[in-house]
Every structure is written in C-alpha cells, then in structure tokens.
Amino acid sequence: MTAPLGVEQSPVREELYVRREESSVTAHTTFTLRDGVHRLTHRRRGGMGSLLRVRMQYLASDPYAVHVRFSSGNAADVEWVFARRLLAEGLHQQSGQGDVRIAPLPGSKGAVIAIELSAPGGRAFCEASAGELAAFIDASERLVPIGGEPQVIDLDAELAALLTAGGA
Domain residues for 115? Predict the structure, then answer.
C-alpha cells in the first residue's frame, strides 16, 4: 500500500501513519491503558488493560512541546502537553520527575515504553510502541531538530508580548 502525499507509512505498523506537513507532524496510534499495579520500574501485574486512541501532534510554532490527545470512546477526550525532549529521552532511559514520566518498560527489551501520567484526579499508566514513538520523534526532528528550538522561536519577542499583554 502506498502512503498518500505528505504522509509517511510507519515501518512499525502498517496502520500507523505520521503526517508531516510544512509546520506540523501528526500521528494517530493506540496506547494500552493498564489496570492493576504498574510502575516505570516494575513489570505490570494483573489487569489486561484497554486500548486508547491517541493523537500526537508536534507544531513547529510550539517547538518545545508535544500535544497528546487521549480518546477512550467512553468519556471526554483528554489532552496533555509535555516536552518533546522528555518523550525522546524516555525512549532510552527514565525521563521526567513530575506529572509525566516515561521510560522503557523493564523486560520489554526496549520495544515497549511505559508512560505514567499524574493529575489531581488520579494516575494513568500507559504502554506504547517504542517504534511508533520513535517514528513520531524522527518526523518532528525533520521540522525542528531537538536543540534547534531557539532558532525557531524568538523568546525575547514572546516575553515582550506577554509583558505587554499582561500590563506589567
């Protein structure tokens, strides 16, 4: 099957497409939401889990962030925004200390990435394909390499706009 123009077919899964446009990258995939005890440092115990539809988006206009929208089909969609570098580092080692923690799942030989999301309302433990996440990061780096964000965004102008708008 040939991928449509502007869309790259993932070598990981035939159903996964990463759409790379002039200023954004979007990927649609699934994560497994795990039940039972699950920590980044321990293999899952109990519970089969359920699939979540996930839309990941990277915007060159917001070069430090990844926007991730989770859809379970049973409740309202939930969107998280976190650092792209956090996701990239989590492909190889434990990354994050706060509300978002990402690391290779022990015992998976690097094929599965564990993602822990914490909010005042509770925690979610997800598993995702390392290959799919890597394909998304690779596509985003073709737009803006990690470390190249300061060349894309003028932080001084952004700060000045915030101070002007805020009346400071």
Answer: 7-166
